[in-house]
Design brief:
Layout (H helix, E strand, L loop, with lengths): L1 H8 L2 H4 L6 H11 L11 H14 L2 E2 L6 H13 L22 E3 L3 H8 L5 H8 L6 E9 L13 E6 L3 H12 L9 E4 L14 E9 L8 H11 L7 E7 L1 H7 L15 H5 L16 E3 L57 H6 L5 E5 L2 E2 L2 E2 L25
Parallel strand pairs: 2-8, 4-9
Antiparallel strand pairs: 1-9, 3-6, 3-7, 4-5, 5-6, 10-11
Helix pairs in contact: 1-4, 3-4, 3-8
Bound molecules: flavin-adenine dinucleotide.
Amino acid sequence: MARFGLEGLRPASVLARRFREEEARALLAGAAAHTMLPLTAPLTGAFGLLFLMIAHSVGWPVVEGGSARIVDALAGELTSLGGRVETGRLAQTLDSLPQARAVLLDVTPRQFVALAGDRLPAARRRALERFRYGPGVCKVDWALSGPVPWEAAACREAGTVHLGGTFAEVARSESEVAAGRHPERPFCLVAQPGVVDPSRAPDGKQTLWGYCHVPSGSAVDMTDRIEAQIERFAPGFRDLILARSVRTAAGMEQYNPNYIGGDIGGGAGTLRQTVFRPTPRWNPYRTALPGVYLCSSSTPPGGGCTGCAVPGPPGRPSPTSACGPAPDRTGAGSQRPTETAAPRPGQRLGDARDVASNGTLPQASPLCGNHRDAPHRTRPATHRPGRRKPGPGDGPADGG
Ligand SMILES: Cc1cc2nc3c(=O)[nH]c(=O)nc-3n(C[C@H](O)[C@H](O)[C@H](O)COP(=O)(O)OP(=O)(O)OC[C@H]3O[C@@H](n4cnc5c(N)ncnc54)[C@H](O)[C@@H]3O)c2cc1C
């Protein structure tokens, strides 16, 4: 851990110098860019390594039928224990909540300050008001008449595709955003869960979503620039678009009040806010108000859900990853999770280990980084037979 900490403290830009090949540097850039920080910022190396380690060891799973099924399963668990879920009502003050022994708030500091009002001591309020938010995202969802015609065969197999070009291009895009500008060629994170989950679209069709980073609170619609990046690596993509839905960063906050200025990570992942989140306190979850706790991504370990699923216990199959050559000793890239029935409402899911290994979270293979004008090619995940028909021009993909 200490070794990882020392390595990870470095910015991705420094760590990238260790790699001779542009593909490896681009791979790191895409993973590190998840931090929404300039790649010269401390800790971007740690996040890049972490994302890639997860990709190699357990992959980046997607949920069969859509992520809402996780919420359904959790809600089912709660109701089976006698709980009640109420939706569609925004809590405006803490006083509007029912009396309870403990109140767990899945909100960021800014909302907590508003909810608590005068009940919060001035010093605590000031400390929370110093919490910094990161850039926003502009997100587009597409309905497509067919799979994305990625030039690189490996991209047609990947659940997540990072688009950006070389390390330098990705780094430029992220530093532009940090400087308050909208990049002309933005780093884009694109997800095509349908490559492993046919339930996401009617036969032959495909769904896709993608976002790029933008300055906080931006109302700029980046659709054209995102689509241009996809078209760059998948000529003919635009011809497949049946419908699209766009949310600018400002729109993201309207959609979910936790996405302050469009920041989907619950606050900037700076060194300070990674160690002390949201503020320096022995117990970061406890607030100044008795029985009131913060439990959102603005508290440790921070934003994100990647890696919440872990490999099954020894002897049980592990999900795979296509992010780079998978070493034989782990078996990554050669095994698939066992498929079992999807969770029923109210069915106990157990811990994340069970979720990942019992096959309710089918594997999506992340593809990270690109090389010059062609997306970086990595080894495709081994797919369950019959999951996806090979597309025209599919050829053997090389290892990353
Ligand atoms: C498009 C997209 C892609 C992402 N991809 C990844 C990824 O690949 N890997 C990764 O690790 N992370 C990813 N993330 C980030 C990850 O999803 C978030 O970090 C995580 O969901 C944050 O969890 P949370 O519990 O803090 O908040 P949320 O999941 O946002 O939950 C907070 C809930 O509280 C509700 N709420 C807020 N205020 C109130 C109120 N006053 N009254 C009532 N309800 C309220 C909100 O509406 C929301 O439903 C992604 C996010 C997005 C949007």
